[in-house]
Amino acid sequence: MKLAVSHPPHVKLGDTIASINAAKIAVLVPVSLISVYVFGLYSLAIILVSVLAAVLTEVVIQKVQHHELTIKDGDAALIGLILALLLPPTVPLWIPIIGALFAVAFVKLAFGGLGSTLFNPAIAALVFLNMSWTALLAVDSVPHITQYSDLILELGAGRLVEVSPIALIGVLYLIRKKYIEWRIPLSYLLTTLVLAVVLGEDLSYVITGLLLLSVFILATDSPTSPVTKDGRIIYGIMCGALTVMYGYFSYNYGLGSLYTVFIANAISPFIEKNTYPKPVDEVTA
Amino acid sequence: MKEEVNEKNSHENVQESRNKVVIPLLQHRGVICEPLVSVGDNVKIGQMIGKVDHDLGAPVHSSVSGEVVAIKDYAHPVCGKMQSVIIEYDQNGDATKFRGNKSANTGEILSALKESGIIDLDGNSIYFKLNSGKLIDTILINLTNEGDLYSNFTSENVPGIINGLRLLLRASGASKGAFVVKKNDIQTISAIRAELGEDDNISIFQVKRVYSPTMLNLLAKEMTGMRVPITGTPADVGVLIFSAYGAMTVSEAVLEGIPPIKINVMVSGAVNQPGLKRVVVGTSFREAIESCGGYRGKPGKIIVNDIMTGTSQFTDEVPVTKATTRIVVQSEDEVLRDKTGPCIHCARCVDVCPVNILPGFIASYADIGRYDECEKLHAQSCVECGLCSMVCPSKRHLIQLIRYAKHALLKSFMVLQEKDSPNLKLGCGSCNSPCHMGAPMILAEGK
User: Fold this and answer.
1) Nearest CB to A7; choose among B1, B356, B357
2) ipTM here
3) CATH number 3.30.1490.100 is the correct assignment for the domain at B106-256
4) Which H or E run contains B38?
């Protein structure tokens, strides 16, 4: 009889990085399918090209550097998928290729790979593309949720992810499984809604698929958000305030939320450093 | 920290007689006993066969009657291998005369505890805990630990556990005693209430979480509000904490004079009929498992005591000791063979940590040898519950790395730590009345 000998604990939860990323991809699949329905097969081409480019970039770089291949954890595929969803359906196909390459090579792997990224790779890539090819990235329309059916199918969407806010409902499953945690989305969403109402904004411009993606998937991206409990709430409130600030003056809450998360990523280490928790047994004099 | 698979060293056991028990000469945290018997001697049930004159010693007793066949190194559930007395038992059942004392005074209780060498589940001798010379005002019985609760808090044991608490109160001179029960554990509470009746000194407290034997300092802080120094024990704030098993053995040892020779063991996991068994100390795990219908499928791992913090065994020919309450068998596919990945800062470890520290950060700093940063992040506050390692999606060895940092800090920051321990500087923070611990009063400017 052979017995395994190892250190404790002898039971662990079954969740792995791969299962978390797979669940996130699964949550984004419905909105991708609806975007294909709305914009036609060309948007499917954008998604596939973007995902393939992200995965291939990771394979090539890790092969060249003789690093262990990490594509199985699904992180590169998730980056490619999110990047594709952030693009308008009118871009030429080389845009997602360049974007995915930039996201994986320069924003993810150059900073040390999974877990060490300073900025969310997909957002950083979109910011890069937006600065370099502004005209190509211009959207045809900005979503405007005037009736309840627009929550299910928004034909005025300018970007793939904006086609259906309700299709992102799967994030509730992610929260329940603790794959993303509730403090950031709750404080972010509440702050945004409260400030928008206080400033007299029309909420039909605020609640878009892009904003919900930022709130639930991008802002909660774990390497780029604070780990401390208080820090996460401050981070969410700051994101909400910045989003409303951007949206109030530009009338574009969706893009505002993207730039918000980009800026918040940069401030996240500072928030984290200043919100280290006090251990339970610390004496408070 | 790779998982290793050891071949069972079966050659030495197969030829030997099966009618034997193995009594390790060290079954507690302390000094190993000198054997009082030699090969060929006949021993009786309850006869002392190992003893050492040391504060940290705890004598061991034979659990069977029979002949000593060997005194040699043998597998031990916690220590790997340990010198043990191997006794081949007969059917006579000769027992030493057990002399109980229903009305023992403090000195008699202490000497009975010392003679019977009883120990608690955290591995410490109960006599040593009581005899530390510190002023004790509260005795707690921790009934939140599920392994202990299932194995020892059976209906016939409840009177023994309550008597044990009364004896411990008398022996320590403490004024208050309490049972600590998990919130809404109505079964346990009503069992105690029914048996306890009216007793002004003993109360029942409900707490929110489970306190494993490594988390007793945290329990003392929770119950008294006083912080236990990082390297200290609950006794430093006047609290002694025992398990249900400890209280039960105390009452057996004092009232009936029986040393701990039998123990309730919960066998669970991949066995055919999991259940609670009462076995004599020294029975091998293999026999305990066979009495539960044997293995279900191929065994992959055998764990003693707690599945979160327990030790895995390299053989099943390992004896049940005085501190074995639980045997967990995992089948081959249940054995974890995870690969460690990078930290993704998902903060799950932060969310589950009972003492509110940042396990992931401390582990990452420990990994690169930055113990100074670990100290700043309060690595020493860790109670080693293992929850962070359990929830980590990257399967990082968080508890091992934090232990490593704590050990390194004890070595390198010895002076700094004593100076910085807030409890030594500030005490309990309520110096309005003379200190029950006899500490000098701290003036307001000193704070």
Assistant:
1) B1
2) 0.91
3) no
4) none
